[in-house]
User: What shape does this take?
Amino acid sequence: MKRNAERLVVIGNWKMNPTSVGAAKKLLIDVRKSVGKLKNDVVVAVMPPQPYIGELARLLPGGRILLGAQDYFHEERGAYTGEVSLPMLKSLGVSLVLVGHSERRARGEREEDIAANVRVSTSRNMITVLCVGEHKRDSHGSHFTVVESQLKTALAGVVKTKLKYLMIAYEPVWAIGTGNNATGEDIEEMRLFITKVLTDLYGRVPASAVRILYGGSVNEKNAAGILAASAVDGFLIGGASLKVKSFSEVVKQTARHGIA
Ligand code: PGA
Assistant: This one.
């Protein structure tokens, strides 16, 4: 399905990889070369581990690739050992943050922490990618109930005028890192459902500003099929974002589905 070219986004979530700053620099330089060759307007971002962000920002002066953080803590400063705040990330050149990834939820991140993060980062005009998704599917459609509840809780403090800073990544947990991606049809059904929940909460026009991405075992082999069957605005990619060819191939395929 075609969608407006300016909405398209591909984000690489490097998770806790690679294991040294040297390897991270090499990976980013290779991604930069490979994506730089492609002539398209897809917004491309990578989310490296936080300790590497400062070094990596120096390798991205042109802004063709944006830097994102995989998490942050919603207070600005103070006695919060081990935490990293939004102003700190901004000062390093970070322009988007991931919130509520299922791997963080699994390690105890609470709904109220997620809601606080989404509220604070959108209110500070930081692009915020909120992850939602069910653990499993059944024949009763419980995945819709799960996603609706995650959206409503996470967005409780987000005002209409800040929706332009929000993206939703639909990431069914069973599809993450398993090689079993959701089908384009299932993704489209969920995309429409998410749009409906947002429209009920905020109205049609503000809701339409929110880009909806898919994540879960996306790679260069399945991206085109998903884009053909669903009008998602792009992808959040884990494993395949560490492979330069796969990642840039997904960017290329995504660009083909935009109308200028
Ligand atoms: P995956 O991860 O592409 O390796 O399935 C996606 C994610 O967790 O964001």
